[in-house]
Write the structure tokens for this entry.
Amino acid sequence: MAQLSPHFRVAEFDCHDGTKVPAAAIPHLRTLCEVVLEPLRSHFGAVEVHSGYRHAAYNRSIGGARSSFHIYDLRGGRFPAADVEPSLGGVRDWWQFVDRVQDRLTPAHGGLGFYPRGGFIHVDLRPYVARWDGS
């Protein structure tokens, strides 16, 4: 299996219906892992990827946003998203940690969603700062 970083494999980001991550997204997923997910793992332990890639039809079938960053095809693989849950800490802790990580990027950028009922956060590296509460 293709490794993206020391602790993440491409297959973890495949669509839930079995559709593989588009090849164009792999270098950008590698960046997401290196910049956000590996630091998150170092601080909070193993990170489970709840949702990574979604093709448009699958995204529609689950009621996802039309321009979701989970639809890697929309942006030629750039700025891929993942919904993740580390093994230690809580949703607010993870959100605050990633907020600081993304704030230190030059320039600051990235999407970050807070989903306490679902027990996960959404992360991506879109070229601007976006924050939301999915409670």
